[in-house]
Write a structure and sequence with these properties.
467 residues, 15 helices, oxidoreductase, 5-stranded antiparallel beta sheet, 8-stranded mixed beta sheet, FAD/NAD(P)-binding domain
Length: 467
């Protein structure tokens, strides 16, 4: 048996999504010998299958919706959807799913790149298997960073695995909009893609097992989206458990526990994401490979440096702190400072922002009312409709929305907030600052809010909080 080639590096970064790539580049620029390892596209899910292509779809669908609102407001218009320019734009933005530019960007910062599947085989060793099955062993002198992200979670529904179902990856690569689509899952991915396809003429049905859409957000967001999606022609079924899937000449048939039966040309599975720690080989360093996430401390350390052995850090989805590009980038900064010995503040997760890019958008930060109460926080809430703050404009943009704030009555600060409506993700900025900086409610109430902006609703919600 031929000996396995052995390489050495100061730092090995396994997984080159946004956070892993950034960490590898910054450490290389600091003068360390860094090897980045990934078997998928450098840059990760976001630029190729997530944030970027899906927002192209969402924005294109929004243009159609805007055109359809012209009659009665600004003249006349006839809108004819055409998926082909959307597909072309997605293909261009992803460089036809080619990561050469990203690889060049990484190596241009001084890091080395190895294409293959990285697996821990020891405290300081990563074994990399390439597409031909050839293995290389890389030994770390200073640190290993684990940033392998997540993959679509496919539920064990009888019959599903034998069908050509879609995940988000297939949906964003679609050359044509399907005639009909069943979306399994009422979270952000399923709703964004489902609404986009519906606006291009696809008959879309959303099936969600939980009692409401966006189950982790405020219930008012579910109510708002239910109205909006229904007006866009989507069929929405919550509290509906999928029981089996069949596929044949006439497409997919989804059968549900309470007797519902849905058929469509395509089936999009959007039931969340999963971590694969067994594939990463964490058992080799004494960790539970069946755990849902990797345990990390406030410095993102899985294991600190010990007796001359390298430290192991983790960042991104596998830490369980939020499957967002902005989270992985935030954590990358903490990991880089830790490896370079620069100190700085530890990770803080009390003000994590998140946006669902449906129409209307749902932006949220921190805790929902329910989450705060579950943690024993004494809660007061304030709520206002956007229409009450921007009457002269809101009727021109479709469904309105709301702002809801959640305050800790002990400390007198906001612990969470939701801005749902037109530009909800942009309105969220002010609320994120308030939650992150723990701005006293007394100070927030002194704020002057420009009229007739949508963000003025924040002041109305704070006034309702005081009522």
């Amino acid at each position: 048996m031929a000996a396995v080639p052995v390489d050495h590096a100061d730092v090995i970064v396994v997984g080159l999504g946004p956070g892993g790539e950034d960490a590898a580049g910054r450490l290389a620029e600091a003068g360390l010998d860094v090897v980045g390892v990934d078997d998928r596209l450098v840059g990760g899910e976001c630029p190729y299958y997530g944030c970027i292509p899906s927002k192209i779809m969402v924005r294109s669908a929004g243009l159609l919706a805007e055109g359809r609102r012209i009659p009665g407001h600004a003249g006349t218009a006839m809108v004819h959807p055409d998926w082909r320019p959307v597909a072309r734009t997605v293909r261009s933005a992803t460089a036809d799913w080619d990561d050469k530019a990203a690889v060049d960007r990484l190596t241009g910062r001084g890091a080395r790149f190895v294409r293959g599947t990285g697996r821990l085989t020891g405290r300081d060793v990563v074994s990399v298997t390439d597409a031909d099955g050839e293995e290389t062993e890389i030994r770390a002198r200073q640190a290993i960073v684990l940033a392998t992200g997540t993959r679509p979670a496919v539920p064990p529904i009888p019959g599903l695995a034998r069908t050509p179902y879609w995940t988000n990856r297939d949906a964003v690569a679609a050359e044509v909009a399907p005639r009909s689509l069943v979306v399994l899952g009422g979270g952000a991915i399923g709703l964004e893609l489902g609404q986009a396809f519906a606006r291009f003429g696809t008959a879309v049905t959303v099936v969600e097992g939980a009692p409401r859409l966006l189950a982790r957000e405020e219930p008012e967001a579910h109510e708002l989206l239910l109205r909006s999606l229904t007006e866009d022609g989507l069929g929405v079924h919550t509290g509906t458990q999928a029981e089996s899937v069949e596929y044949g000449d006439h497409g997919f048939t989804l059968r549900c526990a309470r007797g519902d039966r849905f058929t469509a040309e395509r089936l999009l599975v959007a039931t969340g994401r999963r971590v694969d720690l067994a594939r990463l080989g964490v058992g080799a360093i004494g960790l539970d490979q069946d755990a849902p996430v990797l345990p990390v401390d406030e410095r993102l350390r899985v294991m600190p440096p010990d007796n001359g052995r390298p430290g192991i850090w983790a960042l991104g989805d596998i830490t369980g702190k939020g499957a967002f590009t902005h989270m992985s980038m935030y954590q990358a900064g903490i990991v880089v400072r830790g490896i370079l010995g620069e100190g700085g503040p530890p990770a803080a997760y009390h003000a994590v922002p998140r946006v669902t890019f449906t129409d209307p958008e749902v932006g949220a930060v921190g805790l929902t009312e329910e989450q705060a109460r579950e943690r024993g926080v004494p809660v007061a809430t304030g709520y206002t409709d956007l229409a009450d703050s921007s009457r002269g404009y809101v009727h021109q943009v479709g469904n309105a929305g709301f702002v809801k704030v959640v305050a800790d009555t002990r400390s007198g600060v906001l612990v969470g907030a939701t801005a749902a409506g037109p530009y909800g993700g942009e309105i969220l900025g002010a609320l994120s600052v308030a939650v992150h900086a723990r701005v006293p409610l007394a100070v927030l109430r002194e704020q002057i809010w420009a009229y007739p902006t949508f963000h003025r609703a924040i002041g109305e919600a704070l006034a309702d909080l005081a009522a």
